[in-house]
Amino acid sequence: MANPTNALAYQPLLDSIKNRDCIAVIGAGISSPDYPLWNALLTELLRDCGIRAEDVPAKIARDKASQADFARARNPAAYYDTLNRVFARRKSPECATRYHLLARIGFCSYINLNFDPVLCDVLNLHTNISVSTYPVLQPKHLRDGNVFHLHGRIDKDSPAEDGRIVLSKEDFKTAYDPIRSRVHAFLQSVFDDHDVCFLGCNPEEPNLKRILGSCESFQESLHGVTSPSRPRRFLLWSHDSAEPMLKKCGVNLVNYAKVDGAYTGLLDVLKHLAGDRPISHRQGDVESRTYASNDGGQP
Question: Which of 5, 114, 204, 239 is deepest in the core (most CB within 10 A)?
Answer without folding.
Answer: 114
